[in-house]
Amino acid sequence: MSTFFRAFVLMVIVLQSVQLSGCGFRLRGSADYPMKQVFIESVSAPRMAYVLTRELQNANLTIAESKNNAEVIVILSHEILDRRTLSVSSFTGKLEEVELNYRIHLSAKKATGEVLIEPQLISLLRDYQFEETAVLAKADEEIMLGEELFREALVQIMRRLQMLRVG
């Protein structure tokens, strides 16, 4: 490789680094949250509450034992994963396409009662083709898509908590 080509490649890398740093880009690392103590209240959302608790602890937040000790109270409710038929073959009458819908309600408030996140629905959809000849594989695909929807909802909740104005 010629010296000119190496210098050119190095210059391109440096310019890209400068551009990325100038636009606010940064690598994923530990997330910053505007609070230190959180209480998670779950109303029919036990799985999300458990995983969110674990993720927040990994981010060095303290999970409060009671609402009174928390800076922020996160309320999760009505966690549901629905399966719906999207299409059926007009010739055979057999299932062809399925839709998965993961939904959870989220709200947050201070211990004083001040609302930080108005009650809102997080709803995520995925659909897939169903093949009768690969029932086991499609069942596994449905499980994987359900997990993907759950993880995506978790990330959305965590981002919304990062954006709170607690102070």
TrEMBL record:
Entry-linked Gene3D superfamilies: Lipoprotein like domain
GO biological process terms, semicolon-separated: Gram-negative-bacterium-type cell outer membrane assembly; lipopolysaccharide transport
Annotated organism of origin: Thioflexithrix psekupsensis
Pfam families for this protein: LptE (PF04390)
Example GO molecular function: lipopolysaccharide binding
The protein's role, per its UniProt record: Together with LptD, is involved in the assembly of lipopolysaccharide (LPS) at the surface of the outer membrane. Required for the proper assembly of LptD. Binds LPS and may serve as the LPS recognition site at the outer membrane.
Family classification: Belongs to the LptE lipoprotein family.
UniProt KW Transmembrane helix keyword: no
Keyword Lipoprotein: yes
Assembly description: Component of the lipopolysaccharide transport and assembly complex. Interacts with LptD.
Keywords: Cell outer membrane, Lipoprotein, Membrane, Palmitate, Signal
GO cellular component: a single term: transporter complex
Name this protein carries in UniProt: LPS-assembly lipoprotein LptE
